[in-house]
Structures are given as structure tokens and as C-alpha cells.
Write a structure and sequence with these properties.
Blueprint: E1 18-24, H1 28-39, E2 46-53, H2 59-64, E3 71-76, H3 82-90, E4 97-100, H4 111-120, E5 127-128, E6 132-135, E7 141-145, H5 151-156, E8 170-172, H6 173-179
Parallel strand pairs: 1-2, 1-4, 2-3
Antiparallel strand pairs: 4-8, 5-8, 6-7
């Protein structure tokens, strides 16, 4: 089986650059809110890598209207799906840290800062995740997902598999380079 691997990472810069990956496929009803929650972050040093994955709705025109210089725009002429889209965006990452915001999600304005502080506090921590909730289109909460992940156990016990919402993962880019993106099997 897999042998857990301990690593010590370099100290993060004071205001690390966060690369945020957002593949978008026919996400027009949600996209402005999702992007707004990135623009509202208290941690200012980020780049948003947004990819129109062959959408047929207003997604392309919403992306075309974005003017913030921290937003980098990409396009698949034909729909490639989430996994392939993320893997192509991984090759464009410039940040010290990498995270996701799905095109139909939003996050609280302090999400980046909280995750940066947590990772910066321990050079053995390669990634963190967050709690999340599911909501209706009008924002009404349907369910809350609160999990306590034991990161020490995660690092040492290959059989420990806590529920992790991939969309909330916040990781060091060195770790991403080591892992090399999503395995095609998961498509």
C-alpha cells in the first residue's frame, strides 16, 4: 500500500501568492457570485485561473467582462470536463499555494487568510481543508459538513481516510508538483 510521507516545506513568503482554479461549464447563473467571493478576499495576493470549458450559455461573456488584473482567462473550445480542465490549469499555476473555487460555489471573505495562516504556522503541513455547507440557489443552507481532520494521523496512518471535500483543498504548490495533478482514472 501507500506509505505516508513526511515532508518539511520552505517557509512561506509574508503574503504568499494563491492560485485559485475555477473551471466553468455552463455556470452563468452562479459565476458572478463565485468570482465576487474571490474579489472580496481579505488576503489580496491571489490569481484566479478561470477556464471556460466549452460552455454554451453566457459563461464566456461573463468571463470576457472581467477586468481585474489578477484574473487569468483560459478557454477549451470543446468541453473537457472538470478533471482534465483542472490538470491543464495546474500547469499554469504561479502561486506558492493552490486552491479551488468551483464556479457554482462561494466562500467567506477570510477563507484565504485563515488557510494561509494555518499552513504558514507549520512547515510540515502540505495542505488543509475546510468545513463547507450546501445551499439552494437562493443561498438557503440545506446541510452543513463539519469535519475534524487529524492531520498527524493523516500523515502517519495509510488506513485513515477522513472525508475531504476536494473543492476546499488548499495546498502548497510543491506538493502539487510532487503529486502531479489528478490521475486520469478519476475522470
Amino acid at each position: 500500500g501507500m506509505v505516508p510521507m513526511r515532508m518539511t516545506f520552505p517557509t512561506l513568503p509574508h503574503q504568499p501568492l494563491i492560485s485559485v482554479l475555477m473551471p466553468a461549464y455552463n455556470a452563468a447563473p452562479f459565476l458572478s457570485k463565485a468570482i465576487g467571493s474571490i474579489l472580496n478576499q481579505t488576503h489580496p495576493n491571489w490569481e484566479l485561473l478561470i477556464l471556460d470549458d466549452g460552455s454554451t450559455d453566457e459563461t464566456a461573456s461573463i468571463i470576457a467582462g472581467l477586468t481585474d488584473v489578477r484574473i487569468r482567462k483560459f478557454k477549451n473550445e470543446e468541453n473537457q470536463g472538470y478533471l482534465k480542465s483542472c490538470n491543464s490549469l495546474f500547469t499554469e499555476v504561479k502561486g506558492d499555494l493552490v486552491t479551488f473555487l468551483d464556479a457554482d460555489d462561494t466562500c467567506i471573505s477570510t477563507r484565504f487568510q485563515i488557510c494561509v495562516d494555518e499552513i504558514a504556522s507549520n512547515r510540515e503541513v502540505g495542505f488543509v481543508t475546510t468545513n463547507y455547507c450546501k445551499s439552494n440557489i437562493d443561498g438557503a443552507i440545506k446541510s452543513n459538513h463539519l469535519g475534524e481532520t487529524d492531520y498527524e494521523k493523516y500523515a502517519t496512518d495509510a488506513k485513515y481516510n477522513p472525508l475531504v471535500c476536494c473543492a476546499t483543498i488548499f495546498l502548497r504548490s510543491e506538493l502539487l508538483k510532487k503529486v502531479g495533478g489528478y490521475h486520469p482514472f478519476f475522470d
